[in-house]
From TrEMBL, chains A, B:
Identification of the protein by name: Glutathione S-transferase-like protein
Pfam family, one: GST_N_2
GO molecular function terms attached to this record: transferase activity
Species whose genome carries this gene: Sparassis crispa
InterPro entries tied to this protein: Glutathione-S-Trfase_C_sf, Glutathione_S-Trfase_N, GST_Omega/HSP26, GST_UstS-like_C, Thioredoxin-like_sf
PANTHER family registered for this protein in UniProt: GLUTATHIONE S-TRANSFERASE OMEGA, PTHR43968
Positions of the GST N-terminal domain: 11-102
Length: 252, 252
């Protein structure tokens, strides 16, 4: 057991069923899709920097005050004594360290995948945040909840004002729908009608999309009106797409 | 001669040496890289819609008033009696119609390439426009110059105010440098130090970048201070990168 990969994730109040963080879901999906054994270590927000330093995972960016900024996901792989942070870097590491498992980022597509991460951030992710950060705050444990609220509100104002039910929230949903349609158009651009970004098989671009969409499913619930509606967008593309990920929604 | 592909491009006052339009350069580079014979038909801006309708090329978007919007590049291929507009669609057509020529968009990367087009538009292209639209206006023939000025100024104000020499233009250059560095970072993300987006060989993502960068070289001149400076950015990456395209800068 001590030799399996250790995967660091952020808990919710009900960690048994709900892994919620979209960025850590990208790594969880990566591990599950590759079939690699791992165990989850749950880390509250205020402890992320300390834990990353302890295992030797690099900061993923720099704070406005110039100090290193640590984020999850991170993994520690005892078999190679390697700590890695940032889901894209983790995907590249897993492809190299475990070449006999399904490939996430095929040779030659690393730069294209990196560019996709950026455009997905600038479009879909940006539109999901006002919808999803306020309800996410409600499912965090107290230490994370206080940290999450403080850091998010210092930039964008009171969480409860971001997307109150009614026309403002409807507008955010419509904005998200427009951005997701762009992704659907890219995926259809080869005219072959394949379900995934690179064709018939899941790769890291698909995992990025699924990681973010599953956030809504996990936090609002699989029966929620918003999730049910999202699955119908683009002629049901996203419902079918997310169905393919159900078998990888394992919280190991 | 009548059987070669006809390529529709926008002239400058000195068409012999200067094909300038970044979007049409994407198709010109595509044709030159594939080694496909073609002849250029030069179309002034006010004639683009008429010419596209005559050859049967589709509009590439919709104007704000709901009318179809026609743009170049477009090609007409007499051997298949096909007219295509939009450089990405043209690249996909050329790959299918001429499978024995170098591939622009490898199988499975069509959606990733489409996503790259979008992020390149949102980053580098957006930052090049204030730098390059005003000097471009100065090299157009009178009918295109009037059309270009009217359509651009109706949205963004007097062309001469966009990037006057001095601190405003310096700022636009710095903004462009920042965005190009992002592209360099994506290209370096596999850690292999290869010169192009997918490795050692030119593909359509590279042609997209080259098409836009060559705009500066053509309009400001290869000896201009701004072009000379751009080539030094990211440790000289863009100078080396554009050198690889010099043999495809043929105006056929």
């Amino acid at each position: 057991m001590s030799e399996v990969i250790i995967f660091y994730d952020i808990p919710s109040r009900d960690v048994k069923d709900v892994a919620w963080s979209p960025n850590t879901w990208k790594t969880r999906f990566s591990l599950n899709y590759k079939g690699l054994p791992y165990r989850t270590v749950w880390v509250e927000y205020p402890d992320i920097a300390r834990v990353c330093r302890e295992i030797g995972a690099e900061p993923t960016s720099t704070s406005e005050d110039g100090s290193p900024y640590y984020t999850l996901p991170a993994i520690y792989d005892p078999s190679t004594k390697t700590a890695i942070s940032e889901s894209g870097k983790i995907a590249r590491y897993l492809d190299k360290a475990y070449p006999d498992t399904p490939v996430l980022i095929p040779s030659g597509t690393c730069a294209l995948h990196a560019a996709f991460q950026e455009v997905f951030l600038m479009t879909v992710q940006r539109r999901m945040q006002p919808l999803m950060l306020p309800p996410t705050n409600n499912i965090l444990n107290p230490p994370s909840e206080a940290y999450f609220r403080r850091t998010r509100e210092s930039k964008f104002g009171k969480l409860e004002d971001w997307s109150p039910p009614g026309p403002i929230r409807e507008k955010h949903q419509e904005d998200l729908r427009v951005e997701l349609t762009k992704v659907a158009v890219w995926m259809a651009s080869d005219g072959e009608g394949k379900p995934f970004f690179m064709g018939d098989t899941i790769h890291y671009a698909d995992i990025t999309i699924a990681g973010w969409l599953v956030w809504m499913k996990k936090v609002l619930g699989p029966e929620s009106q918003e999730w049910t509606r999202l699955k119908t967008w683009d002629d049901g593309k996203w419902g079918t797409f997310m169905q393919a990920f159900e078998k990888y929604e394992i919280v190991g």
